Amino acid sequence: MSGQSFRFLHAGSFHLERTLAGFADPPEHLLEAFVNAPFDAAERVVQAAIREEVDFVVLSGDIFNPTHAGPRAVAFLRNQFEKLGTRGIAVYWAASQDDLKEECIRNIDWPANVRIFSSDKVEQLTHYRGEHAIADLLGRSWNAQKSLQAGEFLSLAVGGYQIAVMHGKSDLFNEPRQGLEYWAAGGADVPDTPFKGIVTAHCPGSPQGFSPRDTGPHGCTLVSVSADGETRLRMIETDAIRWYRESIEVVAGNPRGEVQNQLRSRLRNLSEHDRPALVTWKLSGIGRFDSPFARSRQRAETLDWLQREFGYGSPSIWSTELELEPPHALRAEWCDEDSILGDYMRVVQNYQEADDKPIEVRSLIGDEELPRQVSSDTWLTDVFERDEVLREAAMLGLDLLRGDESLPHESAKANHSSQTQFVQQQVSHGPKTERNVA
């Protein structure tokens, strides 16, 4: 152990070649922010390193794909690395497969404070503070012919505070081993829960979320090492735009305005985070099909209201989707209707009840040309995927096959009421005869 405390920043997955995606009709006033979000988040990583006065920065791959990101990304990274260099902050980079496309980054004239680990073998670099060695970094960049193995790093561990740097997780994460104090992994867009014990193993995720799946804060990790080797981690949030998935419970009989009040209150809370946000809403609760939101038109109107009311403020909170949670089980009145909707629901119910009944999508689509990735796998065999598709199919049927503006349960009740009135009339007055008519 060096006997000195120090701090470093662990980051990765900048993905400067990407932009935000995963929803339809992106708002024009936010397009520039979507394109710049990966760059803005990466710049915040550098700002955090300078603000926290770290000794060095560890990058665990997927920083950028040179062939897709282009000259802008190269110029941007050079500028950011130079900012770190002027503060005496070194950069240790384990490059990923994307980083090494056509070996471009090996030919770029990076600032002197940047070291990219070899792809051939684990390379050991010692970081000094003045004349004192404070940490050894053992790293290897991606190699198509050689998968990562924890043993490669352990064989070089000779004492002092040891940091393994890699893109991926190697076999260490299957069975963490003693030998190095910190394993800096990469390759995931979302942070993992650090493994802490004899060693600390961690992947910080991406500093920016890129799709509706990447909800919540994203950032980098500040690693503080005490003089006796104790390791502490703290996340620093860096995302320029944040994704949320919010759920609102719909109670039967509640007017549309009451749900809008819940949406408004939730959005005000999100705006306190002081950064633009993209929100996917899900309406849940057992009363959701007994509400106006059972109609797709009402949901579309409410989404438009959310975008107009909150999507143009500062910060902009843009709602990307307002969806109704699909039914977990089909209602009896939906399946009992003597209508096209009833016929459709009975088919869906039949598939739900017969788990072994195959669903082959290709035959249902027709002769249209399908994308290769679709046509190669058109059988729904996964149990969870099958259940999700059937639930969504039921939801689609409710939207398209109602035949009028009434809610599904209202339509069924109306049919039942009409039948009941007819029976009661027959019992009370009896069938009409020629004598009665006369």
In short:
The protein is an alpha/beta fold and 438 residues long. It contains 13 helices and 15 strands.
Which overall shape is indicated by the principal axes computed on the Cα atoms? Answer: elongated
**Superfamily (CATH H level) name of the largest domain:** Metallo-dependent phosphatases
What portion of the residues fall into strands of 2 or more residues?
Answer: 15-25%
State the helical fraction.
25-40%
CATH level 1 class label of the largest domain: Alpha Beta
Give a quick set of tags describing it.
six-stranded mixed beta sheet; single chain; 438 residues; Purple Acid Phosphatase, chain A, domain 2; alpha/beta; disordered C terminus; 3 domains; elongated
Describe the structure.
This protein has 438 residues and is an alpha/beta fold. It has three domains: 6-237, Purple Acid Phosphatase, chain A, domain 2 (4-Layer Sandwich); 242-324, no CATH class; 338-426, no CATH class. The chain contains 13 helices and 15 strands. It has helices spanning 31-51, 66-69, 71-86, 150-154, 256-271, 296-310, 332-336, 340-353, 361-365, 372-375, 383-400, 408-429, 434-437, and strands at 6-11, 56-59, 90-93, 114-116, 123-129, 132-140, 162-166, 182-184, 195-196, 200-202, 219-225, 231-237, 242-249, 277-284, 317-324. The protein has a six-stranded mixed beta sheet with strand order 4-3-2-1-11-12, with helices on one face. It has a six-stranded mixed beta sheet with strand order 5-6-7-8-10-9, with no helix packed on it. Strands 13-14-15 form a three-stranded parallel beta sheet, covered by helices on one side. Helix 8 (340-353) runs antiparallel to helix 11 (383-400). The protein is elongated and about 85 Å long. The protein starts with 5 loop residues before the first strand and ends with a helix. The relative contact order is 0.10. Mean pLDDT is 84; it is low at 411-420 and 422-438.
